[in-house]
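Support request, please re-run this one:
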Amino acid sequence: MGSPMTETSPAPDQTALLIRIAEALERLAPKAETQADFAAADAFVWHAAESAFAPVPKVNRVDLALLKGIDLVRDLLVENTRRFSRGLPANNALLWGARGMGKSSLVKAAHAFVNAGRAQGQPPLKLVEIHREDIESLPALMSQARGAPYPFILFCDDLSFDGDDTTYKSLKAVLEGGIEGRPANVVFYATSNRRHLLPRDMMDNERATAINPGEAVEEKVSLSDRFGLWLGFHHCSQDQYLEMAHAYAAHFGLSMEHGKLEAEALEWATTRGARSGRTAWQFIQDLAGRMGKQAG
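Re-run finished. Output below.
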């Protein structure tokens, strides 16, 4: 009879190798998706690396009533947001134009305003900020939002595309394309200094190098067409700028003689080289600091 077979253990160097392989496979394996707690807050920041929603307990925003000189676009965005929060058809919105005129402030203010006026039993509207560099992760974000018992505004501030960046194609597909399409409980709001989100030289380059230049440019321009609501923001007049300064001063209880406040506000705008809502806000912050009062 032969001797019984015995089970042999791997050599020490083989054991170490197997451990390293197992650890490497574990690192490569996709992480299990954790269910977001959307009841934790009304606003979140999307972290693409972790596929996670970070709650924002206190949003940095101003009251809707303090946004002056943008009455028409304000009313259009609020109405679109109100309809969406009620489960009615609404458009993706592109807020484009002059810097400092309240584009991102309006999105955040409209969200708060609509939530404050929602009917009893109506689910709160959730605001989710996604950073420009994370646009390609939109499908993962939407997969978590889809089916959740809340309406979501996905908000991307200062959205634009440069050079050889092709992530705009991901955005186009998510907004209206694809088999599943955009979830009914999701709408996309973006702000940009560009009406078409793409620089002119990028579009000209596409025209020059494409086999069919017209179709190449159409591909670029059609990104903006995915936004049914285009809201333009333009540089404000001197009267509008002063109206903003007075409104901020009254809101924060900063008492100053009318003419003196206007003179200082205009001097501040001159040193900044611009008149805008942001300039007026910065002037009021400086004024409040000099008066030893809070304004924020």
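The two ends are 92 Å apart (CA to CA). The first strand starts at residue 43 and ends at 47.
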